[in-house]
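Summary for the steering committee. The consortium agreed at its last meeting that each partner would contribute one worked example illustrating the joint modelling workflow. Our contribution is presented below. We chose a case with several input lines so that the handling of multiple components could be demonstrated. No manual editing was applied between input and output; the record is shown as generated.
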Amino acid sequence: MLRFALAQLNSHTANLDKNLNNAIHACIEAKNNHADIIIFPELFLCGYMPQDLLLEPNFIHSCQQQLEKFKQQTKHLDLHIIIGHISAKNNDIYNSAYVIYQGQELTIYHKIQLPNHGVFDEKRYFENGNLCQNSKFIDIKNIKIELAICEDIWHDKTYNQYGDILVSINASPFHLNKYAERIEKLSQYIDSKQSGIYLNMAGAQDEIVFDGSSFILDQNHQCITQLAKFKEQILYIDYDSEKKIWLNQAQKINQNFNNNNEFEDIYHALILAVKDYFIKTNFTKAVIGLSGGVDSAVTACIAVDALGKENVHTIMMPSDYTSQISLDDAQELSHNLGISHEIISISNILNMFNSSLAPSFAKLPKLPKSSRNDVTEENLQARIRGNLLMAYSNRSNALVLTTGNKSELAVGYCTLYGDMCGAFNPIKDLLKTQVYKLCDYYNKTNPARTIPARILTRAPSAELRPNQTDQDSLPPYEILDQILVSYIEHYQSAEEIIKQGIDEQIVNKILKLIKISEYKRQQGAVGPKISTRAFGKDWRYNIAYFL
Amino acid sequence: MLRFALAQLNSHTANLDKNLNNAIHACIEAKNNHADIIIFPELFLCGYMPQDLLLEPNFIHSCQQQLEKFKQQTKHLDLHIIIGHISAKNNDIYNSAYVIYQGQELTIYHKIQLPNHGVFDEKRYFENGNLCQNSKFIDIKNIKIELAICEDIWHDKTYNQYGDILVSINASPFHLNKYAERIEKLSQYIDSKQSGIYLNMAGAQDEIVFDGSSFILDQNHQCITQLAKFKEQILYIDYDSEKKIWLNQAQKINQNFNNNNEFEDIYHALILAVKDYFIKTNFTKAVIGLSGGVDSAVTACIAVDALGKENVHTIMMPSDYTSQISLDDAQELSHNLGISHEIISISNILNMFNSSLAPSFAKLPKLPKSSRNDVTEENLQARIRGNLLMAYSNRSNALVLTTGNKSELAVGYCTLYGDMCGAFNPIKDLLKTQVYKLCDYYNKTNPARTIPARILTRAPSAELRPNQTDQDSLPPYEILDQILVSYIEHYQSAEEIIKQGIDEQIVNKILKLIKISEYKRQQGAVGPKISTRAFGKDWRYNIAYFL
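What follows is the complete predicted structure of the assembly.
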């Protein structure tokens, strides 16, 4: 019998000491739990993804030293270790899986398929391995382990051998409903009679959430074991190497794994993203500008669950256009969440800006009525709020969380240096319609600290002029979001979207707004990817199109 | 005798109609000038680089239609056309060179070496060609043309054939002193007795400047013809296809090509970058916040030369810490340049911010003396200025040019949403020491409209508190810039930089500042790359390091 330890852990980009210590502790714990083999995620020792650190010779050198320390400090353990790390040979760098036993490298496997699409740039850094140089197989106590790294199993298998167990180590970014895809891919990749271990990292790095959700497929390709979603976990499971079957599996099934509640997944993804952003930047406190609207409300909920209510401060910054309803709702929300809240009016500051600018504007040509002059004053309000939040941030050492949803960012319905101010944007990749559904999910699961109902039922408004609603400038959010998903995630053309039954003028207007808003997005805060295509590394467009 | 037309032109990303028309007009002009062959740059018809538009099936389809129109509309011309464009086959996209004659494709060559380093992501989009499928050679009127695209010639030649003339079409980004590299690479790539045409695009797209500077190497590998730097040009040159020599070459030598004045090149690169950013975003006017310092001064000069003095407005926004010298120098600069200038004080607005924030700050724990409280007020001043500029921009339809140099951006000596506000940053990739040298160059070549001497001789200061100078927080710029070049461009470690004789504490402090300032840079404006490694597509780091 062989006992496997599946170490679904977080890694910390470029914090080599921390990753080393975490790995050693996990090995010791595994050995204490009588494990024979421990498996770590892809690039665990250097952290996924070090990006351009991989171009620095000194970083490569430090990684090699770190590996030697790891071997040295696990030398005394009767434990086989499969761990992801870079390897270097001459001037070539590989994304590798090391198999280490008592300080000796038994084999190194180099990732063959290097993803260079979506959020990935692996061909920027790595040479790909090939089957000739690769040691894809390793016998451990009479079972034949076959190695793969992440993207490898998303391509057709190009060779005819197989091991008893395929071990795929991963740093696989979350997007909605990806579990089923992963299970299908692994199932297609392994041979009949072969079982497979899919081990993923659990943690977040900037915009990427690694959701854990590791699993094992048995020799019948049934998913028999599932690890936690969005959480670190070390799972132990036994394998009968004579009968080639997995033992003690029943109790390992994670009841929540297949619950198919998208918004539960999203909510936990966002919490993990915020939590790790703060940990990995060494901050503890957040400040959020509440508007009385739905975006800032749900952002406050996420912040509370990620950082603790004692670490979240909210500021309401009313102007003359802010309704009493908004003030009341923001107040009630902060009361419900148990977080500190204060009010700073922007009216006096706005007046001072207007009077300071008046002599300058008087020299400019007059604008036609109801033209861009409105935009100037609307943006000023948003930017004064941004300044106040940033001043509070500077003075209190709290990071500003910004609250722009994907629908707004897509069409530029947001103010650069205004409501876009902030270090991190938890709902950056959520469409407005998803924000509402996330609130519904949140209120159902948190009846003791809800988002006030009126926030969810009022017509959304930026409250930057009298009686304004978002729908003055934009189509209804259901229509807008349908256009956005079709274009952004499904790469559809205007013609194809119009064929869905949406008005041609609206479609053309929205697609044009997406293009001309690129300058805002490129100066926007980072935020977690939860869709198949987020504004971030996933989305690479020029700013200067001649339209 | 064969007459070549070298069409060193600008392309406009995704503006397919404009590129099509420009190409057709160039062909007609070439034919009127009795050319036999016209050569266009890499990806000329779709523009370099369309980025993720290449993932949209509709864009690919539009490109194919555009190509058909191009063939149709050049059908009547007795002219061989070599032009860069994408090609699509099944689901694969190639970066290709088409050879077209009278509406017929004589051959298509697919780029073999796809750059995926530096600013490039070509493996994200393209399949690479290979020698089997490639039609690398084409006979045109008894001369054998050999085709290559950009990166191809930067790698060793892997085949033994050669043509009479190698034609390499390029969209090659500028960086300092790249001409010599290109000549060397082409010279190494071509065979003895073979001559080579290096044709580059002239124009800018976002952060990338394509500097033109095309050239011809004759059969002795002598550079006999050089096209304009940083300017569009169609050059005609004759080739004796019997004797295999170039004719009428003497008059083609561009006197300025090898002048080795780095700052002349930089200045023209920046002008082109600004000019094309405005053209390609459809703006004409710029507004700049003048401080009385060197960065905003040289930015104003660049803007005047790129956009015309009638299109540049400057605003000085003094606080109580602003010296009379700064006010006078800014005034004198705008007078010298002949641009409009006005003064808007920030003192009243700052006071209003301070009094609005006072109740909130009073509730926070007291800070130790001379601590981050200063930073709060310093940042507020910068952010008020940012807001004023953006308000002016909204009201006047002028784009804000921001003025942060590379040294500041590297170490975070700048205020996010404050002095970092702006659409485009002309001096983003210039070290502070380079900014001074660029001013010297400018003053020497523009004696009638100089930057006032005192701006160049005063100790640099942000003037955000009394008697502040940059050197209160930073090492002397000569030292800082030496560290930055060593780390950013030469990938050196702290140890290696210390070995140059720089104090260990300073080196470690600066390298740490670079890492923890990444969040600012990722929200900063785009600006032209002039070094071998700029903050932009060239520089990919995570924000959240656990340091």
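The first strand of chain A starts at residue 2 and ends at 8. Chain A touches chain B through 88 residues (CB under 8 Å).
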